[in-house]
Design goal:
- The protein has about 110 residues and is an all-alpha fold.
- It has five helices and no strands.
- Helix 1 packs across helix 4 and helix 2 packs antiparallel against helix 4.
- The longest helix is centred in the C-terminal third of the chain and has 25 residues.
- About 5% of the residues are buried.
């Protein structure tokens, strides 16, 4: 999937791999380490919302500082997920599509 601005999953995965390679980080990018890092980053995203009411959480992007933190944590989660998928050879878009298909079968609309 390519957007109008040229961003696509494969290109982002390539940039992440190049970034890691330039710093000799590949030995640390094992499936276990990436899964742990993904979990940590997801927890940092959750931390932003930890004590907010549902109403406050719905308005979190209205505050520039908080919105910046949310975007950064979302980016960290996605970066680790894309790296995890790259290392294991998972087509992230196909995996999501397959899961939606299974869920449609498991949870039919009323």
């Amino acid at each position: 999937m390519t957007r109008d601005d040229g961003l696509d999953v494969a290109g982002l995965q390539r940039r992440l791999a190049e970034f890691a390679a330039a710093r000799d980080w590949q030995p640390y990018h094992t499936p276990k380490n990436l899964a742990v890092a993904l979990s940590v980053e997801a927890a940092e995203l959750v931390e932003i919302f930890q004590w907010l009411t549902p109403e406050q959480s719905a308005r979190v992007m209205e505050d520039d500082g908080t919105a910046h933190r949310v975007r950064d944590e979302v980016a960290d989660v996605l970066a680790y997920l894309l790296q995890f998928c790259e290392v294991l050879g998972i087509d992230v878009l196909q995996a999501l599509s397959d899961k939606i298909d299974r869920n449609e079968g498991r949870f039919p609309a009323p």
